[in-house]
Amino acid sequence: MFKTFQNTFNIFFPELCLICGNSLVKNNQIICVSCMSNLPLTNFSDWENNEVEKSFFGRVPIEAATSLLYFNRKSKVQQLIHQLKYKNQQKIGVFLGDWLGENMVASKRFETLDYIIAVPLHKNKLKKRGYNQVTKFGERISYKLNIPLLENVLIRISKSKTQTFKTRFERSKKIEEHFQLSDKEILKNKHILLIDDIITTGATLEACCIQLLQTKNIKISVATMAYTL
């Protein structure tokens, strides 16, 4: 009965692609086949010494790193990230987390991970937005890799303005961000996957790593939704 009602409802109120706005066919949850096939995949999960890993050379030690998509201004990827961050479309985080998580499992380069930690929002920004745009992304990677997502261990203690719509030059300026750990013991001798939405200069992730590296014998890998060209 419910399925019949749902099918009738979808005829009059069809689900729309979050990128192009066209009606979705069955089994296309948020993006149509055409838009999905045109998303710029990086394939970094299978690629050692990829661009994300190189971006941390000489800054902080990283075991491995990956990003699912390339990010450009006025692109399909920007549309997705914007809707995720500012339109409460958290199903985008689920979709991207499933996709990247499956790639990471297949790559065999992320088999020694113990925990996942998301780059946190400042408490004021979290209160205003109502959610961390990376949480659902992390939950799905946690499910795919079968490792726990730790929350409230890494805490942001200073706010920063969004970097999403800035030019690379603007992003290259020093970011005044500070983080602290609420529990160092749980991270001792562990391999942590640090996740975020977009990596630009890597300054925010670097600041997180510097704090995490105060923990004894910790290893860090990185995974993000997108990498800025």
Largest sheet: 5 strands, parallel
**Principal-axes shape call:** globular
Under the CATH scheme, which class of the largest domain?
Answer: Alpha Beta
CATH architecture of the largest domain: 3-Layer(aba) Sandwich
CATH fold field value of the largest domain? Rossmann fold
Strands in their spatial order, largest beta sheet:
1-7-6-2-3
Strand percent estimate: 15-25%
C-alpha termini separation: 49 Å
Total E-strand runs: 7
How does this model look, in words?
This protein is an alpha/beta fold. It folds into two domains: 1-38, no CATH class; 39-228, Rossmann fold (3-Layer(aba) Sandwich), CATH 3.40.50. The chain contains nine helices and seven strands; from the N terminus they run αααβααβααββαββαβ. It has helices spanning 2-12, 33-37, 51-55, 76-86, 91-107, 123-129, 135-145, 168-171, 203-212; strands at residues 65-71, 115-118, 149-150, 154-156, 179-181, 191-199, 219-228. The strands form two sheets. The chain has a five-stranded parallel sheet, with helices on both faces. A two-stranded antiparallel ribbon has the order 4-5. Helix 5 (91-107) packs parallel to helix 7 (135-145). It is globular and about 50 Å long. The N and C termini lie far apart (49 Å).
